[in-house]
Specification:
heterodimer, A: 305 residues, alpha+beta, Arc Repressor Mutant, subunit A, SH3 type barrels, 4 domains, five-stranded antiparallel β-sheet, three-stranded antiparallel β-sheet, 39% helix, 24% strand, elongated, B: 316 residues, four-stranded antiparallel β-sheet, 11 helices, 38% helix
Chain lengths: 305, 316
């Protein structure tokens, strides 16, 4: 959906940027041009018509910019004064600098050459902007892992992953066929058909410790098993912000016992322990006593040594 | 909207005239030669003042000066092409491809529009992007606070911002900071700057900002330290302490991953880790339950024991 900047200033900026773009893309289709600038075709025609009236003082045909777009293809001439793209705004520089830092961190380790080129671009952009601070974007996923997973998703090939499951605290090696990468509440997940479980599984990409391409036999994958959902109730006693973030609760809900759910008993138990007394599990009773026993047995270990 | 179009035409014509001139143009020269300045002297004057402000808001630098002895006391105006145009030096197709990846990292996220307009300018340099020269990766920046752009604009204009921050007990703290930089690590966004009330550099996590972020109208009120780095400023706050922890073989991966050293003790491994905040480490140790035991320092051990007492009491 085009979202034309209709303020006079927004349009002026667009027209100024339109001239160098046209100068470097002579004969571009009107439709592609409208798409590049995210406006409707009729808006683009209106923009080009306005531009037609502009030029050097004198404003005779000799001085005016020469535009032609009736054929559906756009050309521009006599526009040398505006033919160089405008300098980047600070906001544009911020966007590129953060993006470049992310790209540098995401490149595979064997592409030191590209990292050096990107670092040089960071230096050039920083030198030309008024932003003295370092803008860093450190991704959660190492570049070597990302590039292999994305290749596997594209080519529908299998991968062998070494995966750390945080709930069971085990590291296992599995062969999976990647299906897609999906974002969920700030984390990236790899959805894949798992050969050993014969089911669809999701893996948090930042917990994949290593990955290698491999071949898999094409077996029909059963649908994801419907795991059992566990309802539980917690009460926050202190460090409420940590509790809220750990259990993904709304800040306004705290102050009373809150019922929520998880697919993993293991996760509930560990999360309550890791809240260091900030959160109390009030239900279900069996997990509650399990937590009490676990904490007591740990306590015995500490006091006996 | 013919008047609006007239205004836009006038702004473009003024830009062209000021860019093309080799010397400063006086106001009267501008009124005489640039199309669109009409009406009484006062009207033209007002139009011109507004146009100058508008162009400056678009980031166009208009220089004021006078070196022509004839117009000694009359100011002249021009736009220097080298300050108007993008100049990144010699650019290759691979560089354009890397910059495209950088811009595309914002798709659907806060600076999508700015990244897109930057990319349009880069494409106007006329160098074809060499996509085959870079690996087919598509790193992404995740969505941040809905007022992300307020922060980046404030950083570029050196404006103070104010917001409500959720403290560790969810108490609402009013903060006014002079933002220096914004950064992301492990899918969290941080803004760092000078906390005006505390006169100290502080770092805030964007997802802990409650409600909207507003910027103060005054621009240019402070300076950003050269080379300031959000994450360096974070680690400089406290000095690191070393803890010794016993972890079961093959277990406690999250602790194992951060180990400085590992000593094989048979059924267990003894590791050392560096930490800044004892509570964060205690949380992580307790997450591993029976598979992790703190050995030293003794204060940390005592803290773990007291937290375990609390958990037992709470769940009795």
């Amino acid at each position: 959906m085009p979202k034309a900047a209709q303020t006079p200033l927004g349009r002026t900026a667009r027209l100024l940027d339109l001239v160098p773009y046209l100068a470097s893309h002579q004969g571009i289709e009107l439709l592609s041009l409208a798409k590049e600038f995210d406006v409707s075709q009729s808006q683009m025609v209106a923009d080009l018509t306005t531009l037609w009236m502009c030029g050097l003082p004198g404003y005779t045909p000799l001085e005016l910019m020469e535009l032609s777009f009736e054929s559906g293809f756009v050309t521009i001439h006599n526009a040398e004064t505006l033919a160089h793209p405008r300098t980047l705004s600070d906001e544009e520089s911020i966007a590129l600098l953060l993006g470049l830092d992310l790209v540098i961190e995401s490149l595979p380790d064997d592409r030191k050459d590209l990292k050096a080129i990107a670092l040089d671009l960071v230096a050039r952009l920083s030198a030309r902007s008024s932003l003295p601070a370092k803008l860093s974007a450190i991704p959660i996923i190492p570049g070597s892992i990302r590039s292999i997973i994305e290749k596997a998703v594209r080519e529908k090939s299998g991968v062998e992953i070494v995966y750390h499951s945080a709930y069971s605290d085990t590291v296992s090696t599995r062969v999976v066929t990647p299906i897609e990468l999906r974002d969920d509440s700030g984390f990236e997940y790899l959805w894949a058909a798992c050969q050993s479980a014969k089911a669809l599984r999701s893996f948090r990409v930042d917990r994949i410790q290593s990955v290698a391409l491999t071949t898999v036999e094409k077996t029909a994958t059963e649908a994801s098993q419907d795991n059992h959902k566990i309802n539980y109730t917690i009460f926050a006693h202190s460090r409420e912000r940590e509790v809220m973030e750990r259990f993904a609760l709304e800040p306004d809900a705290l102050g009373a016992a809150i019922e929520t759910s998880s697919y993993s008993r293991e996760w509930i138990r560990r999360s309550i322990l890791a809240s260091s007394g900030g959160a109390e599990l009030t239900a279900p009773a069996d997990i509650r006593s399990e937590i009490q026993r676990a904490a007591q047995s740990l306590l015995d270990r500490y006091t006996s040594q | 909207m013919p008047t609006v179009s007239r205004k836009i035409e006038r702004l473009i014509n003024l830009t062209i005239a000021l860019l093309a001139t080799k010397r400063y143009l006086t106001k009267s020269e501008i009124f005489r030669s640039v199309d669109g300045y009409e009406g009484s002297a006062e009207t033209k004057e007002r139009m011109f003042e507004r146009d100058k402000d508008d162009l400056r808001n678009l980031g166009v630098v208009i220089e004021v000066g006078s070196f022509d002895p004839v117009f000694e006391d009359e100011a002249g105006y021009r736009i220097k092409p080298e300050r108007y145009s993008l100049d990144l030096g010699q650019i290759t197709g691979v560089q354009i491809a890397l910059l495209s990846l950088a811009a595309q990292a914002w798709r659907g996220a806060a600076l999508d529009d700015a990244a897109h307009s930057a990319l349009t300018k880069l494409r106007s340099i006329g160098v074809e992007s060499d996509l085959d020269g870079v690996p087919a990766i598509t790193p992404r920046l995740n969505a941040a606070h809905s007022d992300f752009v307020v922060i980046t604009t404030a950083i570029s204009k050196r404006q103070r911002i104010s917001f409500t921050y959720l403290g560790s007990s969810l108490e609402r703290q009013s903060r006014i900071i002079e933002p220096f930089a914004i950064a992301t690590r492990n899918s969290h966004w941080y803004v760092a700057g000078n906390d005006t009330e505390k006169s100290q550099i502080r770092t805030f996590r964007l997802d802990r900002i409650n409600g909207e972020i507003t910027s103060m109208p005054v621009s240019g009120g402070y300076e950003i330290p050269e080379g300031f780095d959000v994450f360096e400023s974070l680690s400089n706050l406290q000095s690191a302490i070393i803890a010794t922890i016993d972890i079961r073989k093959g277990k406690a991966q999250l602790l194992r991953n951060t180990a400085l050293s590992i000593v094989d003790k048979g059924e267990w491994d003894q590791i050392t880790v560096e930490y800044f905040d004892s509570q964060t480490l205690i949380d992580l140790v307790l997450w591993h339950g029976e598979d992790a035991l703190v050995k030293a320092p003794i204060e940390l051990r005592k803290d773990v024991i007291s937290k375990l007492h609390e958990i037992v009491l709470l769940h009795a």
